[in-house]
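User: quick one, fold this
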Amino acid sequence: MNSVRVWVRNRKWVALVGVVASVAVALSSPAEAARRKSKGGGYSPPYASIVVDAKTGKILDGENVDAPRIPASITKVMTLYLLFEQLERGKLRLDTPLEVSAYAAAQAPTKLGVRAGSTIEVEDAIKAMVTLSANDVSVVVAENLGGSEEAFARQMTRKARELGMNSSTFYNPHGLPHSPPNITTARDLSVLGRAIQDRFPKYFSYFQTTSFQYGSRTIRGHNRLLGRVDGVDGIKTGYTRLSGFNLLTSVNTPSRSIVAVVLGGRSAALRDRQMAALIEEQLPRAYAGARTTPPVTETAAAAQPVPQPVVVADASPTPSVRIEASAAPEVAAAPPPPARKPLDLNSLRPVVASAAGASSTTTPSSGPKVRWQKGPQPLPQNTQAYAALDTDDGPSDKEKAALLAKIERAAPAAAAPSAPPQKTAARPATTEWVIQLGATDDEDKARAMLEAARAKSGRLLAKASPFTEKVVQKGSTLYRARFSGFDESGDAEKACKALKKNGFACFAARSS
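Assistant:
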């Protein structure tokens, strides 16, 4: 514990350091001082934390434990949970090659840099997600296990429900910004942190990896507490501009065991100090005897209610709620859910693209839900609740659209002045009807969707012309992946129907 004391004595000292730093910044920057004085202010990631005694299941300390938060790359712990599950079932081996699609290779950093058409072994994929937090590799895993990123995200949400993580909903396997974002709580992440080591002790040791060799490169990890704080043996960091700096940590000593979560840190260093202080304060309070609580187990997902969407219209700060030494609800023990069909890595479906919302002329589709996939979006300042939207059981598309519109209206202005909506087409659509596969914030990803669809469709799209259409609105840039070449709505619908059978999202729309 000496290493912790050298770092920071206690949380009061952390608070004092924060106050001193704030005063120093205010004195050195009049603009910053004015911003702090103003009621609106800049976006500040909302904070939450929890410390759970892994032997008893009791909450030793907590703040805003049930407030919705964005997990960022801690999302990958659930991705790894599902991957470990397939290893345990014998569906995969550590040396099983996973195929890399163009879509996976085109993911935003941080990434390992796997190339489209190549493969990566399961063990390397695990290490890349644990150490580098590789987004491209996360999508490789999602597509190989779920058939598509979107389908795999639904599996992640179902697994969350089975574990009792009733406030968590996932839309991607890596935690990159998305609209709506992945949502969780500090309590839910503590459940996941306990569950993954209870269920997979053989594979949990991968979270202790500080570096690994990939080809000629040495990949080093982001978790600075490993090797610096006694007892820390994982598990995952996370960061986006909206979430702040996040950390899920497991601590195991010969006599005590805790799982701790810090969400919304203002910097990586401050987050680490906050976590170190929590460990120093709460580990001595943890039970030193034999474990009294059963392992975290899975229950039938159908028995778990899906949270309804919640929007906070008032963006004023919500007071923090602290919890001291209260008992955490235990997840009832139950037989594991029936095993899914064995994986067939040679017959996986191509990626299901997230489609952009259509205009009023869009032809309704019975296929996968159509939604926007966006880059970073500002959320209301200090918002304490977000939409808990579930693809299968949540609100309708119309309700989702209205919900997202409320969030956008309440959001602070972007740094750059908003420009009027603009559209530019890489290849103009000259026919009356087009089909759209999706919309993404990366033009290369949009092109990859088109290439994958054409390769899979054979003669169906032989005469169709692929093109990307750039849309800029309120500071966000999206690239629609579209095919033109359809004179009749029936032809466009026929093409979409065939594409949906091959696992693609698709809808028909009039040329704009």
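User: anything notable?
Assistant: The radius of gyration is 23 Å.
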